Amino acid sequence: MGEPVLAHMQLGAELRRALDNDEFRVVYQPIVRLDGNRVIGVEALVRWHHPGRGLVGPGDFIPAAERTGLIVPLGRFVLRETCRQAAAWLDEFGPDALKEAALNVSARQLHDPDFVSEVAKTLADSGLPCERLVLEVTESAVLRGPQVSRALHELDRMGIRLALDDFGTGESSLSLLRAFPAAIVKLDKSFVDGIEIDDGQPAAADARQAVARAVIQLAHALGLDTVAEGIESPEQVAALRELGYTLGQGFHLAEPMTADGVSRLLARQQSLQPGLVKHNGNAFGP
Ligand code: C2E
Ligand code: MG
Ligand code: MG
Q: With left for phi above 0 and alpha for psi between -120 and 50, is residue 196 left, alpha or beta?
């Protein structure tokens, strides 16, 4: 018992030091249209540039940040950075280039009584319109009681779009989707894995696709957008399109990248579509 507790305390102290030392960075993974690969949004993902250990992924420190409460200041940093960057892209590339920027919010943040007002203030400070921000929450976070539920409804009323992340892995239920003001459902990677396998046995393929099929039908019925996560091959794109998915995210489409990487992508996208809004604020559209 002693060792994990000690490791946990050390990690907590290190996270605090890292926040003070500005060791966290945000990278952005494009969210892409499955027909034609146009980037329509990004998801912000935090990274820790540890002075000794190098690049550390969120899986190795988000759980500790949640347990110690440091996720609140860390999440604040990700929120500010993402809103500032998304507003800069809006300014540079115009309203049609990138429709939305998403970021992950943990249950602990939603429990913070100041969270909603902080989001409102951050949006106002950055100049990013509410409807261009997506907050991703997991099913288990949504089910954390009336205070979280109130916060989510307030965010929804402000015009911020809420996405259910990793959908299908948690305590998914139809009533949850109805009770929660979600605008977007993100199909978890585990239901994308293997979706493309064609072994000539229709029953087996059907079973593999069952959740992906059920989720898109449900989303259509409830008027929600969908994003398929963790797409690693063109065959998966084809299978998802066949099922009716139009948006996706995954290493096959684009890996998480720096803000500069996204800027280059948007610039290239715009140069291939000369009819669209040009930057420097002037519209040369048709
Ligand atoms: P998530 O929100 O579901 O983010 C998607 C994760 O899948 C990212 O991992 C991304 O790099 C990875 N991914 C994307 N495409 C592929 C693919 O084709 N194949 C595979 N194998 N993986 C893919 P990452 O960046 O390591 O983040 C892991 C999780 O950590 C996130 O899952 C999210 O739950 C959490 N997280 C990341 N940033 C933040 C943050 O700022 N705040 C909070 N609260 N959680 C965060
Ligand atoms: Mg996410
Ligand atoms: Mg996810």
A: alpha
So what's the pLDDT on residue 3? 59
Give the homologous superfamily in CATH for domain 2-271.
EAL domain (3.20.20.450)
> pTM value?
0.93
Rounded Cα–Cα distance for residues 145 and 245 (Å): 32
Q: Is-contact 117 154, C-beta < 8 A?
A: no
Q: What is the mean pLDDT of residues 41-70?
A: 94
Average pLDDT in the 212-222 region? 94
Task: Tell me if 182 sits within 8 A of 163, measured CB to CB.
Answer: yes
C-alpha distances (whole Å) from 70 to each of 61, 87, 106, 160 are: 10, 26, 11, 24
Could you list the beta-strand ranges (E) of 143-271. Answer: 161-167, 184-187, 225-228, 247-248
Contact 259, 28 (CB under 8 A): yes
Q: How far is it, in rounded angstroms, from Cα 101 to Cα 132?
A: 6
Q: Is residue 267 helix, strand or coil?
A: helix
**Ligand 1, closest atom to CA 188?**
3
The tens digit of pLDDT for each residue in 12-31 reads 899 999 999 999 999 999 99
Q: What is the pLDDT of residues 198-213, one digit of tens each?
A: 777 777 777 789 999 9
Residue whose entry in the numeric block shows the structure tokens 């018992």: 1
Residues having CB closer than 6 A to ligand 1 are 29, 45-46, 57-59, 62, 71, 75, 78, 103-104, 106, 136, 165-166, 229-232, 249-251, 256
H/E stretch holding 89 reads: helix 71-93
Find the 43 Cα to ligand 2 centroid distance in Å: 7
CA atoms of 174 and 218, how far apart (whole Å): 8
| Ligand 3 centroid, distance to 285 Cα (angstroms) | 35
Query: Looking at ligand 1, which atom is closest to the CA of residue 105?
Result: 44
